[in-house]
Structure formats: C-alpha cells, structure tokens
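Researcher: Let's run the pair from yesterday's discussion. Sequence first, then tokens, for each.
Model: Starting with the first of the pair.
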Amino acid sequence: MGFQWSKEVYEESVSSQCWYCTPYEEGWERCPELQADDELRQLVEMEHQLRPIPVWAAEIVARAINYPPLWCPHYSYPQPYLEIVDAIGSQTPLGFVHGCYTVDSRRKARMQDYVFCLDAWLAGVGADDAANEIMRRGCQGVDWRAVCRDAWEVLGERSELKELLVERLLHRERWWIKAMVWDDDARDRFCQDQYLGDTTGAGDTYGNPRFADPYFAELETPRVRRMEARLSELCPDWQSTWGAINDTQLCAPKAFRFLERLIWSIGKGRKLSLPSSPLEQSDVVPGFLRCEDTYPDQREAASWFSAFLTALREWAHGADAVEGLASEVRCRLGERTPVKAWLVRLLVRKLGLLSRVSDGRALLSPRAEGKRGRMPIGLP
C-alpha cells in the first residue's frame, strides 16, 4: 500500500518527535497548520521510504533536532547548530547536547567575578577594596577598578530594598552557576559549599537525560521565600522584578548585559523594560560592567543564521558548495545519503518554525536600539 498522509501515519513517525516549542507540539488534531504542511508531509513520506530508520538517526531527531537552542537562544551560538550537523555527518548521536541550561566553566567563572563585586557592595566594602581583591586573584581582560567604581555609583545610596534586591539577585546567579551543566560539570564543581536548591531538578531534560530542568528548584527554598515575602512588602513593582530576576539564565546570549540592566534598575529605582512587557520609554543603560565581549552583535548572528539555513537547504537538494559557510557545512555533512538528506531537511523545518515563533526572534531580528556585543560569530 502506498503512502497516505494521516494522523496515524504521522504519529507513528520519527519525524513527529522533534517539534518541541513549536506549534506542532500541539499535535495533529490541535494544529491545522501541521496537517497542511506539505514540507512535513514530504519528510514523513521520505521517512516511510527509508524504513527502518537507523537507531543513530532516530536518536539525533529526539535529542538534537528536537532541542536546538533557538526558542531560547544559547550564548555559544552557533556551536549547537554545527554540532547537530556534525552528528548527522558522522552518523553519531551527540554525547552531550549544548543547549538549554548548559554553561562552560569559563563563563561561570566570569559571572562569579561579577557576583563577587555585588557581594562586596552588599557587605559594605568600598569599590577600590573590592577591585583590589579581584585583581589580586588574577582576573584578566576587564578593568575591574572601573567596573566596581561605576557599579557602586549606579547602585547609589543604600536602602533595605536595594540590599534585599541585590541579595536575591546574587542567590539566583549563584544558583545558575551551580546548577547549569557541561560535559565536565555535573552540578558538582561550583558553589559546592552552599545549599541553593535541589540540584536534581524536575521536568524536561532538553536532550541530556541525566539533568532535569533546574528553573524552579531554587525558588522553592525557605530562604528565597523569606526574601521574596519581604520584597513583596517593600517593592511596589515586585511581580515584574521577580520575573526579571528569575529569568537571568546564564546560558542566554546576553546574560551579562541583562545583569547590567538589572543592576541599573535596582540602583536607579526604574522599572525594567522586558520583551514580554516593553516600556514605551526606558533608560539607555550604559555598559558599566564592561561585558560586551560576552555577547554577539545580533546583526552578525542573524546574517550567519540566514546563510546557514541556505547552506543546509542547498546541500539537501544536491548542491556542492566550494566556498564560505556552505562549503564548511558540506564538509561537515560528508557523503550525501538519503537518511542524511532527510535529517537535514527535518532540521531546516524545525529551525524555520523556531525562528518564527520563539524567543529566537530576539537574536535573529534584533531591535534597532539594542546594545551590540563584540563576541565573534563564526566557525569554532
């Protein structure tokens, strides 16, 4: 019997297992767009002709193509996308998925330096004393004396509200430093002398089965609840500030810039403009943390992504590029096979949906007024 596009055929397919954080996650009956998607129909038909799908390919779909970090972009961009291409080319599933809630030790150490500065301010230490200690530790590449001086100036006159907001922010940042994972970090390398929450996490694992989502665990600790109860009494806009502090994930491309904006908000007593609730008028926050090297120029990121999708499409349809990113993609994918072509087309469809409906738009369609970083975009 020939191929027939139906709910049953779709739901039995491997192609149905990679639509996390897209409208297709709703399923056949609740998503008319899915039923009408001719590209998806072709992909399922390709899979039907290729059966049985190799185990390695099915695992790449479930763990890698299902979780490319674009719904919530990742600071290591474009590394995670190229690693998926490498997995397809080598016909080998990823050992570790660099995506949601994953951060390397160098980035954690950089955040620890800023956490130290804020902790020194909270302790009542002068800016020069804080800078002297951090420089004695050998932290390179940042003018820490200028950072501390400017941060102290931004935070301004002390108050119970400011101190409690900084304390709450510090607790959350320490939690991210401790709870985010990497190839060599199983939540067992940083902040081991502090209980900040249950590190087992709960819920989705984002392609890394050993590590469940850590977002909520820290919020449930008695210490955090006490701080937040007092903040709800002191802070007139606590709900908005609560959300901003909670969403300081260190894996985000502009995590350090967001920290900068939060410190400004705390020090100046300003409401923070967020993508979910933008303000008509908001302060232009200067780069007083000197952290522009930790995030990219989003215009370069958007240009790279467009070229990457084009390279994948061309390879899947038989083109042999000889230069630029397209040539690099071709080399990584290696010999063209029907299974690889199916996987690449599936990846293109997934990335296309994510770029349209997710927070990836913030990375790929940057606001004109957004601050540009200088972390290079390119091939690792």
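Model: Moving on to the second of the pair.
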Amino acid sequence: MIHDGRNLADSALRRPTANFYQINGSPCPDLGIKLYCLSALSLPIETRLFRLRHRTAIRKRAQQIARMVTFISYNLQTKDYDLFVASFSNPWKKPDASERQARQLCFQMRFSPTCWYDAVTQYPNGPVGTPYFYIRGGGDDWGVVISGSAKAKHRITVDLHVPEPSRPGPDARAIVRTLLAMPGWSKASDLERVLGMVD
C-alpha cells in the first residue's frame, strides 16, 4: 500500500500522545522517551553531510596529487630537460635564460581557485646526477611539501612545513595524512632535513 505523506502527517497530529510538550522534549509517558523537534536534528545531520563531502573532496584531491606526482616522476625518467619543459611549462611562464642555464623549471598545478601547487624540477648540469622535484602546496593546502626524484624506486616524501608565524592551510594536515596512507609515500626523514632535501 502506498501512503500519502500528507495523510500520515494528519494522522500523527490527531494522536493524543503527540502534544506540544512531547514534541519539544518532555517525556512521553507511554514510551518513556523524549521526542524532539525536527529542526533540532537537522543541524547535526547537515554537519555530518558537510564533513562527509569534505572528506570525499580531500580524498579525491589527494588521488589527483598522487597521479600528478607519478606523472612527473615518470617524465623525469623518460624525457630530457627540453622535452620536459615543452610538456610541463605553464603557457604564461616559460623558463627564462637563467632557469634554462641551471636546467630548472618552475610551474604551477592548480586544482581549484583556492588550491594550487608550485613545483620546481631540477636536472643535473652534467652527465652525473638524477633529476628531482620539489612541490609546495598553496591556498587550502599551504604547508604541504612533496619531494622525489627520477630514480625508479625512489620513495615520494610528503610532510607539513609552515614557516613561523604562518598557519597551515585548512586542508593541509588532512592531505598529508591521506597521502601518507597511500602505497609508496612516506614522511620526510630527519636525515633529509639535515641534508637540505626538504625545508
């Protein structure tokens, strides 16, 4: 049988136990429970839905970041400096003469109007050395620092670093936690800090 919501509401209002005091939180003598106004329950539900959507957005962005980092690592392994520049340089900012001489490329990856990542890649000037990259989050992810190299089995490190007196972005800590939970990601070690590989 299909019920009409309006008929159910009318029948509920006609019940003698559903009076004003019970709806506003007084004990129900028949059931021994309290009934609350629907508007009082709507706020926690909305809050839970907002948090669920936010966690989903964080997870999706972390997956996008992980794919982009993998793509950068692969291209550092398979392309020389000029080919890499052609693939990754932003249309509005080509490397200048000093950057080309240093075999460096700076580019930006924008995930939303309030979230972006600035990347720096460095190729060796001679035959010895391995290209590496360094990425720093901005906006919502300000403070996220990611680093890695073109070595096939080199781990990707991610950490949270915010210079004083700045505060991390609102999503930075959640992004770091989500990335660290993925295979192949690890936190920057103290040795890497001493060597200057991360700030």
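Researcher: Give me one sentence on the second I can quote.
Model: The chain is about 40% helix and 20% strand.
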